[in-house]
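ARCHIVE CARD
CATEGORY: sequence design from structure
SOURCE FIELD: tokenized fold
FIELD CONTENT:
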């Protein structure tokens, strides 16, 4: 039987040189997003990573947070970033070498972490669960590798919180439906606390940030992708799409555009 569940460019079957280049660009853009930076800062402050600790970064991408964690643990600590995309892993390794970071990277699966039980002090897992068809299994794996007292930060997007304004409500609803179909679990952000609790972990803190796009310019690559997706499924016609594009462009010219999606975070620990 063919698995028809949604996949993203992060899944192994979709990896290509072109997709990797697009992912690097997207991840680099997210690294400088104010909302992402604020939520990451909150999570790092809540985790209180200490010198000498053993840290695991699941879905490390280009390694920006892996390198930050490596700085926090210092020369006595160890940080491993696991990333199944070989292109992203190569970029992470190159950037780590350029920055003389002690972070190390490996090919591994979030559903089967290559570590013994109770051997990790801290786990960082950002925007990974939304891409998994078995996210609960990944969270149980995190609980397994954490030592008693070990901490974890889960950060993920909730695509159902996508807001786009102005425009015809029916057309916008069609585009946001497309955003929901882009992830295996588009509601992942709101499920973080429940998944951590189900895995036997204790919640220490929760946080959120709205990731706002520039109110003076339209993120055309994203908008056109969503528009084309909605048209291909017959949710809107060409005239509706073009009218929405005109409305968004005019709002941007007037400095009144709103585009956002909310990202949530939860920090927890394994009981002693």
């Amino acid at each position: 039987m063919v698995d028809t569940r949604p996949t993203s460019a992060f899944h192994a079957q979709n990896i290509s040189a072109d997709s990797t280049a697009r992912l690097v660009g997207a991840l680099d853009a997210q690294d400088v997003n104010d909302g992402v930076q604020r939520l990451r800062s909150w999570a790092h402050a809540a985790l209180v990573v200490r010198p000498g600790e053993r840290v695991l970064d699941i879905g490390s991408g280009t390694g920006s947070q892996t390198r930050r964690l490596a700085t926090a643990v210092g020369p006595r600590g160890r940080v491993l970033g696991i990333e199944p995309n070989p292109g992203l892993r190569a970029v992470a390794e190159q950037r780590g070498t350029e920055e003389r970071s002690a972070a190390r990277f490996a090919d591994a699966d979030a559903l089967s972490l290559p570590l013994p039980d109770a051997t990790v002090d801290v786990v960082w897992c950002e925007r990974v669960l939304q891409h998994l068809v078995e996210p609960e299994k990944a969270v149980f794996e995190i609980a397994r590798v954490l030592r008693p007292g070990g901490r974890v930060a889960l950060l993920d997007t909730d695509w159902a919180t996508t807001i786009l304004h102005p425009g015809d409500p029916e057309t916008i609803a069609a585009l946001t439906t497309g955003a929901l179909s882009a992830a295996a679990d588009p509601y992942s952000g709101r499920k973080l606390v429940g998944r951590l609790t189900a895995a036997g972990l204790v919640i220490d803190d929760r946080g959120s940030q709205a990731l706002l796009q520039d109110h003076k310019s339209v993120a055309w690559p994203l908008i056109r992708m969503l528009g084309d997706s909605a048209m291909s499924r017959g949710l809107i016609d060409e005239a509706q799409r073009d009218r929405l594009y005109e409305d968004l462009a005019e709002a941007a010219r007037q400095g009144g555009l709103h585009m956002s999606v909310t990202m949530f975070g939860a920090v927890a620990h394994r009981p002693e």
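CARD ANNOTATION: The two ends are 44 Å apart (CA to CA). DSSP finds nine helices and seven strands in the chain.
SHELF: design records, drawer C
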